[in-house]
Amino acid sequence: MSDRFLAGVSGYLPLLRMDRAAAARALKFSNLGGRGAGFRAVGGWDEDPVTLAVEAARPLATRDISKLVFASTSAPFFERAHAPLLVDALALDRSVRSFDVSGSRRCVVSALLDALLGSGDALVVAGEKRPAQAGNPLHLAFGDGGAATHVSDKGGARLLGHASHTADFVDLYASREHPHAYAYEERFVREASVAHIVAPTIKAALGNAGVPADKIVFAAVHEPVAGAWRDIGKKTGIGAPNLASDLAASAGDLGAAHVLYAAALAFDRAAVGDLVLVAGFGGGCDALVFEKTGAIAGTDVAAAHLSSGLASTDYLRFLSLTEALDLDWGVRAEFEQKAQATALERYGRDMMGFIGGRDSAGNVQFPKSNIPVRPDAAGPEKLEDVRLADESARIVSATADRLNYTPDPPFWFGLVQFDNGARVMMEFTDDSSGGFAVGAPVRMRFRIKSRNKRLGFRTYFWKAAPLERPAMGA
Amino acid sequence: MATGIKDRVAIVGMGCTAFGEHWDKGADDLMVGAFEEALVDAGIDRNQIGAAWMGNALDDINVGNSALPLAHALRLKSIPVSRVENMCATGTEALRAAVYAVAAGAVDFALALGVEKLKDTGYGGLPLRTKGVANDLWMPYGSAPGGFAQLAGAYAARHGIDAQDLKRSMAHVSWKSHQNAALNPRAHLRGKVTMETILGAPMIADPLGLFDCCGVSDGAACAIVTTPEIAQALGKSNPVTVKAIQLSASHGWEMQYGAWDGSYVANTREASRRAYAEAGLSNPRADLSLTEVHDCFSITELVTMEDLGLSDEGRAPFEILDGRYDSDGALPCQIDGGLKCFGHPVGASGLRMAYEIYSQLLGRAGERQRGTVNYGLTHNLGGAPFNSVAAVSVFGLLT
Hints:
The complex is a heterodimer. By secondary structure, chain A is α+β, with helices and mostly antiparallel strands. Chain A has 2 domains: 5-321, Thiolase/Chalcone synthase (Peroxisomal Thiolase, Chain A, domain 1, 3-Layer(aba) Sandwich); 341-466, no CATH class. Helices cover 26% and strands 28% of the residues of chain A. In chain A, the strands form 5 sheets. Chain A has a 9-stranded mixed beta sheet, with helices on both faces. In chain A, strands 20-19-18-21-22 form a 5-stranded antiparallel beta sheet. In chain A, strands 3-2-14 form a 3-stranded mixed beta sheet. In chain A, strand 12 (275-281) and strand 13 (284-292) form a beta hairpin. In chain A, helix 6 (186-209) runs parallel beside helix 7 (228-236), helix 8 packs across helix 9 and helix 9 packs across helix 10 (299-307). Chain B folds into 2 domains: 10-119 and 218-240, 3-Layer(aba) Sandwich (Peroxisomal Thiolase, Chain A, domain 1); 144-213 and 241-397, 3-Layer(aba) Sandwich (Peroxisomal Thiolase, Chain A, domain 1). In chain B, the strands form 2 sheets. Chain B has a 9-stranded mixed beta sheet with strand order 3-2-4-7-1-8-11-10-9, with helices on both faces. Chain B has a two-stranded antiparallel sheet with strand order 5-6. The radius of gyration of chain B is 20 Å and the shape is globular. In chain B, 61% of the residues are buried. Classes of the chains: A alpha+beta, B alpha/beta. Chains A and B meet through helix 12, strand 18, strand 19 and strand 20 of A and helix 4, strand 5 and helix 8 of B.
């Protein structure tokens, strides 16, 4: 038993859910695509592992955070760390220690265990949007999403014990030369990984925690392949439901974000006193045993995201959004949006954090300016930072621009009025009801602002989204 | 104490090319075409031009930067030549500079020429361009119709007007311009269209359909200005004079300060208020004989009627449907077809508007002639409703 806790666990899923049955119908001629059941969470064109991670972490980002770790196997940049982007987007202090982890989908659990074995308040955040080729079963088995956890000396889930096993095990072929994952023969992966890696590690963790297998109430164990939990259960004696399996069916395998998301669902359902097993797989295994001791922030957010969303049967749109189909968007898509590093240095923190300014008369504006926009301002003033990301707001004007290029038409934008007085011309996103109306309330979402495909670069900003999402199945 | 520009400057010559898809002409051809017409009209020698201003909004897809393309095309020999740009208000900006030069006594004759060669882009509509390295980090890349379409929803919300009723009134705006352009041999779009066609057109930016949007054209227009005394010495006994040119530009409050509801263009209101005062028009609804306004989109013309004070707030949709602004109505608007059908070569449009008012004042408008014209107004709008430059000018005869 340790004195380290999970203070929060949360998750975020994009709006769209591809109906795998519809995908199977579209692929029927080829007999490809894998299992045709459940849904696959599909990130919008303006979502990537960074944005998904930011949204997942927002419910947990507090002033206490002194360390941030970003985990992903599909993060967009090489010579640019992603964790600093999260620090700015979450408006954390720049004294926070931060770094990225990657290499396999287990990386996030390894980072979590490292934080639990360390000190201070840490955020471990994962975001994933893994590429796969159309027709490959992984294209529909994967899902896009983010998850986050807050590790602290206090919280609602105490670490009771853990175990780790390191082993190079090739289940997926994916590399810089071949970024689309290619799965090795399923029977081999299931039998070898369960027998030699996952089951022994879980048994060791249970032993270190002093917990019998039948006391585990919920599991969040990353299956090496779908259906492996049954075999893991047999070899470990655990009969608890594995919420990672359920998550894979209803949203897809979220890669590095998967186990954390499943853990959020497990803790959301668990009662105080229940034991929860969390295990990550990939290049080995890390298994952790927790006891729920009290309230845990963010788990309800993760559960709400899973139960809400917009089901889609549009396989072609899915192919386009996942960049499995490269449509020629015409001449308007040729505009190159090259972000200047100098401009990012000057304005990046305010853009990433959605930081406006309050002038001497109390008026809030975005972006900041030397002379406030207030009509009676007489000269330059020093504005006080005001973060707009979590402020409530309404639409003043809106349109669906069908002339402008966007990878997922139409291009919605308009004027947004914040309750604190700020107003900003913004892009809208996540339309789930056929449009945006004047006066409608909106919430802010962190998204990709622009992409420069020629340089492989992207910028981020905030967009206005509907306050609520439809319930899945509604 | 400033006394304004009223009657201090006369227009002695104007020229305007046909607007349209000039696949066979470059910007230099268009500039020469407009200038030679104005030169003949003015009855002066080209070497009498003392200074020139070239209005060109989209230099990167046209003739390149500076005003040297104008000096080269017209072979203006070592006189001051400058390029001005203020988005779609560029044409009026060029005229304003030339008018002020004459009024200041700096030169006897000044040239304002606007030109745009939009059909060298390979596609319809205006090109997407950077908004600046800082703005690019947050500002949406909306298209021009996207920016103006937002007037519609906000206007409907403010005045409680049903969206379908507003759409029908907007359609009448476009229908009217097509009717008028049919009589204009220089107009880009001369075919008449039915209300059903307009209302059933594909959507461009909700609720603006294809026929709610103006044409994208090549073209040039120009004016030669001088003092009223010199104009009279040239034999123009009662020349057209500038009664007012006023310009108002956003300083950011529409987009950043919570007072504007998105349903009108504040700069049009301010520029017109100052223009009426400068021209000495106390009752513009009665004083004006006709208007040429910046009907880049049907909803823009609709709200402009109120912003200019020509319709009461909330009444423009109904007065438009009643025909008040038709060619045979009480106060015709876009009697030449407007941006909608004459076309919109951006840098030339403000001068094209002045060209029509000038022609009407001199009784030269042919089939479009509106009887006796006392005062005509041009309204040239750049940018978008939330970030705009509005130029309002009034023209009339000297006496």
